[in-house]
Amino acid sequence: MSTGNYKQLAAQLRKPQGVMGDEVAEFMNAGNELLTRNTIQQIKLTRDLNIIEIGMGNGKFIPELFEMFSLSSYHGCDYSMDMVQSAKRLNEGNPEKHKVHFYHCEAQQRPFVSQTQDVIFTVNTIYFWDDADQVLQEFGRVLVNN
Ligand SMILES: C[S@@+](CC[C@H](N)C(=O)[O-])C[C@H]1O[C@@H](n2cnc3c(N)ncnc32)[C@H](O)[C@@H]1O
Question: Which of 97, 117, 139 is nearest to 50 (CA)?
């Protein structure tokens, strides 16, 4: 692979877009499957949950979340409009899709009311955030205070 191609791939991993973006998203689904499942398995709360995922890509693992937990809502945030659209498409057949909401936004710009969310998770995105402190502060604001 040439240097130019590596740069193109790196840009797509950061923000998947267009036809190549969809291919990269599928490639990430396969490569990150174990990590994503391990992350989801860390959720130990058993009540009805409101969950946010930052950088859900094409949202492949959303149906598994609904199988594993009793979810009141799932909110997926991604700053790639193409990923938001792919996630909407992939979740068309999800019987729980009325509980699924997608947002085209930056990690620190989530449109949520304070103390309304039980879980926020993200896989392979933190190194793309411009200001991780700001994002984590925002997490603190929207998480339910247990
Ligand atoms: C490497 S992919 C990981 C996708 C998926 N979580 C996985 O592990 O397969 C990074 C995803 O996070 C999104 N992303 C990266 N930085 C972001 C930010 N600052 N705000 C919102 N989304 C972001 C990208 O658009 C992309 O869909």
Answer: 117
